[in-house]
Amino acid sequence: MVTYYDDKSVQVTSTAVRVDGRSYPLDQITMVWHRRGSRSWRVLVGRGAIGAALAGPLVAAVLGIGVAVWLQRSPTVTIAIVGASVLVGLAVGPVADFLFEHLDRSYARGSRQLEIWVRWRGHPVRLLQTGDALRFGQIYRALQRAVEHSQPRRPAARR
């Protein structure tokens, strides 16, 4: 028996697919397809908030420099305001790695609900619904490989 995918709730092997304790033998599955749901606004707003958090200190630094020049104060005050603005801008550095990591994870998880469907014993059955795009892709590809390898080989046509 070959295992194509295995986690705590889904197992795809060369003989069957098991999802949340239910087993679906591959020889009874005739078709596999997927559906994508609508976008999650919560995920999109979260990505926008991360972008704003990345840009915020830089915008504050530029505005601080602009205000320092606009005020036309003594060189000492202007240098102090510009220095403080540059420090605010530099504050984004240590935080940027953390925020970019969260942004990458957001794209890996996806912004839609994804479903895997099969035709099992002649009836459509939803095997899985998840918002995790990476996991969905791994399971879907494993299921496709398992079904392809379980199909009987047809002899090549002779010419």
Write a brief caption for the model.
It contains 4 helices and 7 strands. The protein has 159 residues and is α+β, with helices and mostly antiparallel strands.
Helix content: 40-55%
Query: What is the CATH domain class of the largest domain?
Result: Mainly Beta
| SSE class | alpha+beta
CATH architecture of the largest domain: Roll
Terminal-residue CA separation: 36 Å
Quote the CATH topology of the largest domain.
PH-domain like
Low-confidence blocks of residues: none
Tell me the major beta sheet.
Answer: 4 strands, antiparallel
Query: Please, how many helices?
Result: 4
- Which strand-content bin applies to the residues? 25-35%
Q: What would you report as the Rg, rounded to the nearest angstrom?
A: 27 Å
Q: What pattern of helices and strands is seen along the backbone? A: EEEEEHHHEEH
Strand runs, count: 7
Question: What topology, given as strand order, has the largest sheet?
Answer: 1-2-3-4
Average pLDDT works out at 82
- Tell me the overall shape: rod-shaped
Number of domains: 2
What does this structure look like?
With 159 residues, the chain is α+β, with helices and mostly antiparallel strands. The chain has two domains: 3-38 and 111-150, PH-domain like; 41-109. Helices cover 52% and strands 28% of the residues. Strands 1-2-3-4 form a four-stranded antiparallel sheet, covered by helices on one side. It has a three-stranded antiparallel sheet with strand order 5-6-7. Strand 6 (112-120) and strand 7 (123-130) form a beta hairpin. The longest helix has 31 residues, at 41-71. The chain is rod-shaped, with a radius of gyration of 27 Å. The chain starts with a strand and ends in a 9-residue tail after the last helix. The model has no long low-confidence stretch (mean pLDDT 82).
